[in-house]
């Protein structure tokens, strides 16, 4: 593998060059629209990029849309909207979010190929960013992270990035920009790939803790609000409903929206039966799906250890602390 360096002052030239063929997305801290939260947005200038903080809004919203019109219906029949999607280059994706994206790809591109997701996801160039220090609730160091970027950026002294190239397309791109990407012999060793302070989860196998009384602490504080589901870059569940046109009830749309297993309605079926009726069942289910069930089926945890579900939980339930105390 050939490595390169990229000076931070040349990041703008890189973005300009990418913009010829892609919508370039990067994390942006927007005080006006998002109240100072970080979100992946289209950028044309490196000055607005925020690499120092992980995005508040999960990357999945660019592919698995919060609201998707699956088809429109009328007396004439069904009409499936044609998606015209410009290729995306997404810069600044942290290792945790690459893991989550790989899991979303597994579900929506391979397990049950989903044309709406695939249309958004294909022709995407992923440019990862190695963050050196864990944020307060991160535990990615306790997770066997999967997922790769086409290009990976590592901080180097002297206001530079080390650039690792992992795909043929990305190599062609980088080699075509000789003025800003310089070949180097520098390699990132195993120690530098670690993220300081991220090994918070002490348990690899949570199998035996299902009936542990320690869960009660979290259950008592949980509001069943599902903020944890909606901020999670890995959660992939959805709901489907029809919306009729109130002015002409013979037509309408079938719509898919994000759903969350922490909502009581999530497992409600005909006859008003609710499979996970208690908060206890819902609370444990999310954590077991993230750390255990998905791993049993696919060999990797659904959870990436990004810590968003703890950071944005209104009652700050730290399920890692809870598990560690069991
Ligand atoms: S965000 Fe917190 S309070 Fe809301 S459902 Fe998730 S764990 Fe419960
Ligand atoms: S469960 Fe929490 S820590 Fe794990 S990927 Fe989802 S938001 Fe991140």
Bound molecules: iron/sulfur cluster
Q: What is the beta-strand fraction?
A: 15-25%
Strand order of the largest sheet: 3-2-6-7-8-9-1-10
Taken together, the total number of domains comes to 1
Quaternary arrangement of the chains shown? single chain
Describe the sheet with the most strands. 8 strands, mixed
String of helices and strands: EHEEEEEHHEEEHEHHEEEEHHH
Cα radius of gyration in angstroms = 21 Å
Number of discrete helical segments: 9
Quote the average pLDDT.
95
The share of residues in helices is 25-40%
Category by helix and strand content: alpha+beta
What shape does the CA trace take? globular
Q: How many β-strand stretches?
A: 14
Distance between the termini: 44 Å
Low-confidence stretches: none
Can you characterise this structure?
- With 326 residues, this protein is of the alpha+beta class.
- The protein has one domain (3-325).
- Helix content is 25%, strand content 25%.
- The protein has 9 helices and 14 strands.
- The protein has helices spanning 11-19, 95-111, 115-121, 168-175, 216-221, 227-231, 279-298, 308-311, 319-325, and strands at 3-7, 23-30, 37-42, 67-74, 77-79, 88-93, 124-129, 151-156, 160-165, 181-184, 238-245, 248-258, 268-269, 273-274.
- The protein has an 8-stranded mixed β-sheet. It has a 4-stranded antiparallel β-sheet with strand order 5-4-12-11, with no helix packed on it.
- It is globular.
- The protein starts with a strand and ends with a helix.
- The mean pLDDT is 95.
- Bound molecules: iron/sulfur cluster (2 copies).
